[in-house]
User: Fold this.
Amino acid sequence: MTTEQQKDDLLWKTAKKRAAFKWQIISYLIVNAFLVAIWFYSSFTVGEAHYFWPIWPILGWGVGLAFSYADAYHSNQFFSAEKEYEKLKKGE
Assistant:
């Protein structure tokens, strides 16, 4: 496999990660909006606001989403095998 093919494969993997991240954002927004709507309609029909329980799936899923973002948009710079190889080669 040539260097050009390796670069194309890397670009293809990065493009797939970024497209997957965009779908994750869409599903995150839709599902969490639905959970907030359930909370809203179930709490205010009684006449008073109740504990905002959707915060837990919002925060939990948000942490996972942050890792997906870092993997899709910043992993090439920080977790680069080429950079680590060069460091080892230089003796760092």
Q: What stands out?
A: The mean pLDDT is 86. The two ends are 29 Å apart (CA to CA). Residues 3-44 form the longest helix (42 residues). Helices lie at 3-44, 55-73, 75-78, 81-90.
